[in-house]
Write the structure tokens for this entry.
Amino acid sequence: MIEALLGRIAVAPNVAAAARRAAARAAEGAERRDAVAASVHAKVLAAFVAEDVTESDLASTLGYGYDDAARARYESLLARLFGAERALARLSFVSGTHAIVTALDACLPHGGRLVAATGRPYDTLRNAIAEAPQCLVERGVEYAEIPLAAGGGPDLTALERRCAAGVDVVFVQRSRGYAVRHSLSAATCGEIVAAVARAAPRAVVLVDDCYGELVEATEPTEHGAHLVMGSLIKNLGGGLAPGGGYVAGRADLVERVATRHFAPGLGTALGSTLGFGRALVQGLFLAPLVVAEALAGLDFAASLFEDLGFAVHPAPNLTRYDIVQAIELGDPEMIGAFARGLQRAMPINARFMPEPAAVPGYRDPVVMSGGAFVPGATIELSCDAPLRPPFEVYLQGGTTRHHAALGALFAADAVCGNVSRRDRRIVQHPTKKGAHVTDPGKSLTRGGANVERRRFVRVAVAADIAYTREDAAVPMAGILSDLGGGGIRVATVEDLPLGSVLLVRFRTPSLEREIVARGRIVLSFFEAKQSRYLHGIAFTQIDPRDQEAIVAFVTAEIKRLETAHS
């Protein structure tokens, strides 16, 4: 596979060499992956045989959706696969978060007590539970989070202690979300259920199964979870489902969710498949194959980026419990480079350039790369990354391992073509005049002095800067922390929107005159350790003489470092 790809695409020699090593390493886990995939596929095939699906079962309805044959058969298939009493799958669930929050709200009594057993949920769900207007907490729900144990798994002792004090619903997030933590096996979800039952027998446990369906041979409901919820355009959709979400589990709880989703008295009788019944059923039939392809592609990506010197979670060839690969890049600009590289591999919108932006429900700007046939379908190859430490990017899906590998190659080439992370040795050193420069050790090609795929090299500095927004008359003070001929990085106490145009004025000890330039903010994030906002600013207007002076300053600093470390 890798040789075929490398024969048709151009990547840096160090990335190509790492890819060959990564392919060999990923192949070591193929027998184990194939055995799990065969077990899952057999389970799905057996479900279709038992259901005795006929052509008439694929008929869809419009309007209210009474007696929708495709919906009824699809939900029966889901219930069988989850080992559940009942399932509710509707296109009217617009996302996994929608299905999850609907289920939580339906299962919580008025003024009920909700406990998150796996720490802080991912951004959009945490927002819906505790932060957004009309969130569950604002409507009277008592909410608590149990931090994860030191090893990254659930703290069952603390969970039991909290549940003993009173709880109605316990929420479990199976996948890692945007956190440095382990994803959970179905069996581990069962251990949480057992712990809750010991302390609060009447409580119900709801598991967010997004990204985890069909990754292993059993599901959380087969280990005692009362409900599972998720999206139909992730694992279960097989790349064909056009939208929707689901819940599956105990029949009375599914009915409560339907009542909450539609209206009291309507229950599960409504909901047209709008002509997409065939795509839903066929997508489910193909889903185990697509999930297996995604897992194989992610194992290659993990091996590739670990070979290049990055921390990856999970490590290559470890047992996976979801279709998410976390890669710790450690720098927001490298996240941008990764997303731009991955975007080149997309079948749709490959020429687009991902930029960080505010996204509804997320507390930090997010960079997303995607070009799916079904927008938002993360079973198709995609990545997203919130701009906050430790600056991890989350690579998801890939309907074929070849496509996932292609995306990983393009992303790696964008991040570290010509130099691996372990060759960078980025260290901060004080200079005699109080400035700081980024020391690339003996490798000065890329990364060490913030050399990315830019026209200009940058070095780190520490100097005062004054900036004025276009819509303001009074200049504000900031700290210049990164300087190059094409732009700067500035730390400020105020949050400045992406796209803002600033007039900047600054000096450094080695520049003889004040530099005045105009630039646009192309990157922005909050740095918690500094309690400041960091902004990447690309020059849009600068005197050529000033630009030459900056380039000369940067060149001199790099030569000084090269001399110091030779």
Remarks:
- The CA atoms of residues 129 and 136 lie 5 Å apart.
- The chain has three domains: 2-38+287-420, 39-284, 427-564.
